[in-house]
């Protein structure tokens, strides 16, 4: 059984290239994501056409022996990138899909996803319990209740799938916004939750550059150049 990782770089980042290529704490989000994913196996960077040349330049000279780059069909939204990645991983039975806006996912999460897939799960999501107080409101914005947060979870990236299941989900959503979790739930695919990373978070660069740099310096389990 093989596990291959797909890192989509969709066209929306053509307007925010720093979110992919600018160094934070010495390493770009692209580089950091690839290093985290390499623990699972081969990595396919599936990139929208307008960003392809810059991705190639960023990888030049890097010691990535198990990384391939594939260019998606236009317009290059996330779903097109994932579809392009799947076309070149036909020999993989399981796939890990990442999001470049989650640059602090530790390698331990990738290991746990791969292990769950090997044990028979078809869709695997790292999750964390909700610790903040969550309220419900009525249509006018008035507070109505405090929700039981013991039944709530946040879901993180990366995420794992049986390759044939992800292929089916992509086939149902060939345009517009694509979220693997929502697609799986809509299709009735059973989703297994594993322990996530307490310090993994989604960031928006360059806005969060200083905060992300400070967080990275405190982590001991992130891959380094």
Automatic annotation (TrEMBL):
SUPFAM superfamilies: Nucleotide-diphospho-sugar transferases (SSF53448). The keyword Transferase applies. Keywords: Nucleotidyltransferase, Transferase. It comes from the Bacteria. One of its GO terms (molecular function) is 2-C-methyl-D-erythritol 4-phosphate cytidylyltransferase activity. The keyword Nucleotidyltransferase applies. InterPro entries: IspD/TarI, IspD/TarI_cytidylyltransf_bact, Nucleotide-diphossugar_trans. This is 2-C-methyl-D-erythritol 4-phosphate cytidylyltransferase. It comes from Mycolicibacterium hippocampi.
């Amino acid at each position: 059984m093989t596990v291959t990782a797909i890192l989509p770089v969709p066209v929306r980042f053509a307007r925010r290239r720093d979110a992919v290529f600018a160094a934070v704490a010495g390493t770009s989000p692209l580089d950091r994501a690839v290093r985290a994913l390499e623990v699972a196996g081969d990595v396919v960077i599936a990139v929208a056409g307008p960003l392809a040349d810059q991705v190639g330049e960023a990888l030049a000279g890097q010691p990535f022996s198990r990384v391939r780059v594939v260019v998606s069909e236009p317009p290059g939204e996330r779903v097109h990138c994932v579809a392009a990645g799947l076309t070149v991983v036909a020999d993989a039975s399981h796939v890990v899909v990442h999001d470049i806006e989650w640059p602090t996912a530790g390698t331990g999460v990738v290991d746990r996803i791969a292990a769950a897939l090997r044990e028979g799960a078809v869709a695997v999501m790292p999750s964390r319990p909700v610790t903040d107080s969550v309220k419900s409101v009525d249509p006018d914005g008035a507070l109505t209740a405090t929700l039981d947060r013991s039944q709530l979870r946040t879901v993180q990236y990366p995420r794992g799938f049986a390759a044939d299941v992800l292929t089916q989900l992509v086939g149902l959503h060939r345009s517009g916004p694509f979220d693997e979790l929502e697609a799986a739930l809509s299709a009735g695919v059973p989703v297994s939750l594993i322990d996530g990373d307490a310090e993994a978070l989604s960031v928006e660069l360059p806005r969060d550059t200083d905060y992300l740099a400070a967080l990275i310096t405190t982590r001991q389990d992130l891959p380094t150049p």
